[in-house]
Amino acid sequence: MQNLAQQQISGLGRLGGVQQAQSQAVLDAQRQAAQTQAYEPYQRLGTYGSGVASLISGYPGSTQVTQTPKLVHYKQLLELVQDLLVSTVD
Description:
Helix content: over 70%
Number of helices: 2
Oligomer: single chain
Shape: rod-shaped
Radius of gyration: 41 Å
Largest sheet: none
Distance between the termini: 135 Å
Structural class: mainly alpha
Order of helices and strands: HH
């Protein structure tokens, strides 16, 4: 009789261990799903950023060209304004 009780207690212990392992596996899966959902935007940005970086890496750096206007154009404009002023005063 005592041997049967020990077997039952041992069986219940194994059953409890299996149930606890299953509950822990469910909790681990929920935690992993929550973590994946939380980090998904960052992973998407990382993927997007590496794609853009690989596209840009083949292009040379941008150069900026500036042209300074010639002084002659300003001088002509100044003479035109001066002539207009003189003609309105006369």
